[in-house]
Specification:
2 strands; two-stranded antiparallel ribbon; mainly alpha; Brnchd-chn_aa_trnsp_AzlD; transmembrane; membrane; 5 helices; 75% helix; transmembrane helix; 2 domains; Integral membrane protein [Lactobacillus plantarum JDM1]
Amino acid sequence: MTTYILSTILWCGLVTWLSRVIPFVLIKNLTVPKWLIEFLSFVPVAIMTAIFVESLLVYHAGHWPTVNLANLYASIPAIGAGILTKSLLAVVITGVVAMALIRLLGWA
């Protein structure tokens, strides 16, 4: 491994670490307004919705997107697990197992 590659990896690691730590250090001694906390509480839901919808649709240049049926079928039990358990771990495990079964059965 060359020095250039090693230094690039170390600098990227440092920048990634700093981008995750600096916001916590800066906000530690500040009082955040309630409206901002309430607004930011919707960010994870919006991000997860965007990722979910993006994984369900298949982009075709110049045409309407189509639905990825395997992902749609796997999402049904995962959503059910989320509603029943309110546990992200249960949702992920259910989704992975559902997708494995769908691929095993040849539905994908």
